[in-house]
Amino acid sequence: MTLKKPQVLLLSLAIATVVAACGKQETPAPTAPADSAAKPAETTGLKLDESKLPPVNRFAISDLDTSKDACTDFGGYVNGKWLAANAIPGDRTSWGAFEMLDERSTAVQRQIAEQAAADTQATGVEKIVGDLWSTGMDAAKINAQGLEPLKADLAKIDALDSPEKIAEYLRASAATGDNPLFGFGAEADFKDSANNIAYAAQGGLGLPDTPYYFDAKHKDKLAAYEAHIAKVLELGGTPAADAAKQAKDVVAFETRLAKVSKSREQLSRDVSLYYNPVSPADADKLTPNFSWTKFFESQGVALPKMFSLAVPAFHQEVSKMLADVPADQWKAYLRFHAIDGASPYLADAFVEENFNFYNKTLRGQKELKERGKRVLDTIEGQAGEALGQMYVKVAFSPESKERMQTLVKNLSEALKARIENLAWMSADTKKKALEKWASFTPKIGYPDKWRDWSGLNTNRDSYYANVKAANEFNYKWNLSKIGKPVDKTEWGMPPQMVNAYYNPLQNEIVFPAAILQPPFFDPKADDATNYGGIGAVIGHEMTHGYDDQGSRFGPTGNMEVWWAPSDAKAFSGLTDKLIAQFNAYEAAPGKFVNGKHTLGENIADLGGLATAYDAMKKAAGDTPDPKTDGLTRDQRFFLNWATVWRRNFTEKEMEVRLQTDEHALANFRAIGAPSNLPAFAAAFSCKPGQPMVREGDKQVVIW
C-alpha cells in the first residue's frame, strides 16, 4: 500500500494555495458533504481538560530585543530572543508559532481519541477514530504481525512477468487507492469549475523533487535514498546482495521518470500544467501500453468524454517503460514502494527505517515522534474530518466564528478599496477584478455540512487493515465525484489543521478552527494585534485570488484570460521586482531563497499585510491610540505579523524547503512585506537607506 507519496501532487490542494507549509508529511484525506446539520457533530460525553494543553505563543513585549534596531534587523528585534530560547524539539524539524499550535491541536485530538477508544460501543465517527487510535497504539500486536499484513500484496507483485500483467496489476492496485505511479482523482474542470472531471497527475518518485535525481548538490541524498531502498527490501525478505542490486534498479527507474517530470517550481508557477484535456481514446494513443479506457473501467468510473492527462510526457514514458523495462526491475520498484508506503503502520523496524531516511537524513529530525502523535497524524490523514467533527465540539467557540466573520468583512472592504485605487490597472480589468472580489466565499471554523463516513468499516483487529480500508474508502469516495457538479460546501482541510488556504476554482478562502488561536487570533488581544495576525492571513488568502496563478482564474473559478495585455505587462513588471527582492535573501552562506518559486506566496503576503493595515486603520477610526505597553497600534500590528513568522529550522529542513517549498523561509516573510510599506517605516521612525525601508525602484507595491 503506497500511502506515502512525496511527489504525487493530489489535485485539490495542489492547485489551492495555503498560508504555510506546516511540516506534516501526510496529505489530509479528501472531505465530503453529507446531510448533517450545519453545526458541530452531536458527539456525546466528550470532555476537554484545558490544563493538559500546551501553551499558545502570544506576542509579549518581553520578547523584544531592544539592543537591535527594528529598522535594521526587524526579525531579530521581534524574534531573536525567542528563537534563541526555544530550541527545536527532537521530534520536529522546525519550531515556531505554527508548530506550537499544532502541538496544542494534537493534545486536544489525543484527549478526544482516547475517549473515543474507551467507548467500545461507539458508532459513527467516534467508532472510526476509536478503532484507528486503539489499533495504532497496540505496538505489541503490530510488532507481532511483522510483514504479515503485506504478504498477499507482495505475492501479487512477485507473480508479475509481462507488461500486460504489470499494467493489470497497476489498474487493480489503483482501484484500492494504492497507486505508486501517478495521482488520480476528481477536481473541478479548469474551464467549467461548476463540474468535476478526472485528473491524472505525475508521480512515482520517492525523493521530494526532480532535482534530487540530477543536481550535484543532492548527490548525497540520492546515495542515501539508494541505501534506504536496499534496507527496506531487506526488511521485506530480499537477501542483502539482491537488495543492493534492486535498489540501483529502483533509482534508475525513478531517475527515468524524473527526467520527464515537472519540478515543484514549474508546477507551482504554471497551474495550467495540470490541465491537458483529452479523450480516453486519444490518451490511449499517447500511451499504447497503458489503456486509459481499461483504467477507467477498472476504477469503476464511467468512461468520460474527456479527462485531464497532466504532464503527458510523463505518462508516455510510463507506457514506454512498460514495454522496455524488464519485469524484475518493475517488481523491485513496486515491491519497494509497497513496503515503504506501508512502513509507518508496520512493526518497529519498518517505522524506524522510514524515519531514518525521510525524517532524519532528509530533514534533520533527531527523534522519532512518540507513537501517539504518529497515530494522530494518520487519523488526520485518513479520517481527518471524522476527528474534526469531535474537535470543534470541544475546541471552537461560536464567539470566535462571529468575530472572524467581522474581520473577514472588514478585510474584504479594504481589499475592494485597494483594487478601486490601483493606478496601474485599466478600468476594464479593474471591473473584472471587482467582480471576482464580489464572488469571494469565506469558510470559517468547520464545514457547513459534515462528511458521511458510513460505509467505512473499521475494527480493533489490525492497524494496517484499518488504514488500508480508510485509504480505499477515501479514494472511492473521491472517484464518485467524477462527472458530477462540484459541492461547494466541501473543505480541503480538516478543522484541527493549523493552516488556511485559497482555492481558485471555487474562489473561496478557508480558515480551519485550529488556526484561530494566538498569535493569529486572540479574543483577549487588541484589534491591532489581531489585524497583524489573522487579519493579515485573511488578506493573504484573498490576495491569492490575484497572485500570479490565482489571477488566471476569473470570478466564477474558470481559468480564463481577463487581463488587458497592458495590465498583464504592468503586473509582470511589479512581480519581477518582488522576485528580485526575495532572490537576494540569503538563508545560509551561498543558499538563497528562490524568488520565482515563492512568488505567489510573497505576492499574497505583501497584499495581505497592506490590506490588513488599511482595515485596522478603518476599524480604529478616530479613536485615540491606547499605546498598549507603550507601543502604538501600528507598532503592535507589525510586531504581531513578525511573531506569526518566528520559526527555527534544522539545517537539512531548511535545505529541503529552499528546494521544494513555494513559501519563503519564515524569517524572510517576517521582513519581506513590511519593508515595502511606508506605514512600517513611519511606525518605527525608520530612515531612508535602512534595510527595512525599500524606496524608489526597489519598493514593491502591487495590490
From TrEMBL:
Cofactor: Zn(2+)
Keyword Zinc listed: yes
Region (Disordered): 26-45
One Pfam family hit: Peptidase_M13
Residues annotated as signal peptide: 1-20
Domain Peptidase M13 C-terminal: 499-700
SUPFAM superfamilies membership: Metalloproteases ('zincins'), catalytic domain
CDD domains: M13
GO molecular function annotation: hydrolase activity
Biased composition, class Low complexity, residue ranges: 28-41
Keywords in alphabetical order: Hydrolase, Metal-binding, Metalloprotease, Protease, Signal, Zinc
UniProt-listed InterPro entries: MetalloPept_cat_dom_sf, Peptidase_M13, Peptidase_M13_C, Peptidase_M13_dom_2, Peptidase_M13_N
EC number, UniProt record: 3.4.24.-
Family affiliation: Belongs to the peptidase M13 family.
Protein name: M13-type metalloendopeptidase
Organism per entry: Lysobacter firmicutimachus
